Amino acid sequence: MIIDLIQDRQAGAPYNAKQFYNQVMQYFATGSPNAQEIAEAMDNGTNDHVIYQLCRYIADNNYSNHLAVYVDGQDWLN
Fold first, then answer.
1. Does 56 map to a domain?
2. For the chain, how big is the Rg over CA atoms in Å?
3. Which of 3, 26, 42, 58 is the most exposed place for a label (fewest CB within 10 A)?
4. pTM of the model
5. Mean per-residue pLDDT over the chain, rounded
6. Residue 18 lies in a domain
7. How far apart are CA 36 and CA 2, in angstroms?
8. How many CB atoms lie within 10 A of CB 42?
């Protein structure tokens, strides 16, 4: 799940934007909610667009808001 990718990064796992994108695309292929929007933001948007889509994913799935705060402080494209 995409939430696991976010939580892994928050826990200190090394982050690689290309690897994150590829994993999001795998979730998109399985029909994961919001995966397409996150991938499109990574393809065509700015970091702010990616943050928006990740926070939307968090809210849509009723995950803790503290994760949205974490997401907002990260660079997801580099």
1. yes
2. 11
3. 26
4. 0.94
5. 96
6. yes
7. 12
8. 21
Q: Is 30 a member of any domain?
A: yes
**Within-domain flag for 78:** no
Task: Write out the residue range of the structural domain in which residue 67 sits.
Answer: 2-72
Both tokens of 17, joined, read 């934007």
Q: Could you give the number of structural domains in the chain?
A: 1
The amino acid present at 74, given as its one-letter code, is Q
Q: What's the confidence (pLDDT) of residue 33?
A: 82
> Using one digit for the tens of pLDDT, what is the confidence trace for 6-38?
999 999 999 999 999 999 999 999 988 899 999
Q: Where are the alpha helices (DSSP H) in 1-78?
A: 2-10, 17-29, 35-44, 47-60, 65-72
Nearest alpha-carbon partner for 54 in 30, 35, 28, 78: 35
Number of Cβ within 10 Å of residue 50's Cβ equals 26
Q: How far is CA 74 from CA 5, 41, 47, 65, 71, in A?
A: 13, 15, 9, 15, 6
